[in-house]
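Hi Y.,

Following your request, here is the sequence exactly as I used it, all 440 residues.
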Amino acid sequence: MTTLFTNATLADGCVRDVLVEGETIARVADAGTLDTADADADETVDCDGKHLLPGAIDAHVHFREPGFAHKEDWHTGSRSAAAGGVTTVVDQPNTDPPTVTGEAVDEKATLAGKSLVDFGINGGVTAEWDPDSLFERPIFALGEVFLADSTGDMGIDADLFADAVARAAAEDTVVTVHAEDADLFDRAALERAGDGTGRDADVDAWSAFRTAAAEAAAVDRALEVGADSAADIHIAHTSTPEGVDAAASAGATCEVTPHHLFLSRENLDDLGTFGRMNPPLRSEQRREAVFERVADGTVDIVATDHAPHTRAEKDGSVRDAPSGVPGVETMLPVLLQEVRTGTLTLERVRDLVAATPAEIFDVAGKGRVDEGNDADLVLVDLDDAREIRGDDLHSKCGWTPFEGREAVFPELTLVRGHVAYDARGDGERFGDAVGENVRA
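Below is the corresponding structure, written out as tokens. Let me know if you'd prefer a different format.
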């Protein structure tokens, strides 16, 4: 299949013709240089007034399979990704079984054969991990390594963390860290929480419980251990400016989620326990400071920590509701809305969700609209914004913390030249499960 995109505005503002041959970007030329006859294209897409972007790489998702397919599975999660312009996802280890052995990685890779988008599988660390078999497999990175328990109860002690970091360094593998220090949690704050459920729960107690200081201390610890082993440390879902600054000062990398970027404790009255996540939402002042660091380049990437749970599960007390929110389908759309309002540039968004993730994690052939790269492409019309509605999204959980927020959704998503999602014309259609392991 050969597809010619004409008059496409790229992230840098240049208008180009882009020729896709099979799974690869064959040519990128000045607009008007290529025509259908010369390119011998099977399809020509006129992109006049629209932007053609590299597919996003979401370096942090929980597609829940195996073990929790009632929340999400590889088919529904990848459909949601494709509809949001995400063409590569990286799945985390806290499934059942957790991916802490080579055999568990193999099992998950088989299930990922249902994916519409490309994928990576992270290896995890528990007391039962088997590093020899794990590193024999094509894992994407080591992590999310949990320094405090979250969904899946995979928190580990200091000695095991140091051993795991040293092994990863020897294997030249990035370590992604969930940085919270449970010794600095404010348990009295949680004890003061009421017994309400859902939107009536005192969910702010969760933010008071899992303190900002707990994150800052764990980031410092992770960076120190990483320095001892000369390991590449990546701090996951950094929720505080202190954590971002510490990572940047140490030469490590970090990610910020859309929910920490656009939501704060001020939103919890509306969200209730649907706004409980780890690390929790922070103050509006901290949220604004994190956004500033995203805009100015201090934050390396945005990733979603897509962690879906059913409505029934989330509608519990602040002590019992599981932590996590969906986000893989809304990450790029909410960032594109910031481009519309002028708070972020399109080049910055490209770097946050595509170019820089590809560089940090050494994902060859992805992240930019360049000749020779995989044809992971997303066509968007920045003039076509709409409100986010959970009922319109494709995650199995069927809800979103961004209900009612303006966003710009893709009208076409290609994964290695294959149509993964197409909303042009009436309705929408999804492609086949063509996703491949980017490390295989």
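The chain has two domains: 2-52+370-389+406-430, 55-360.

Thanks again,
Q.
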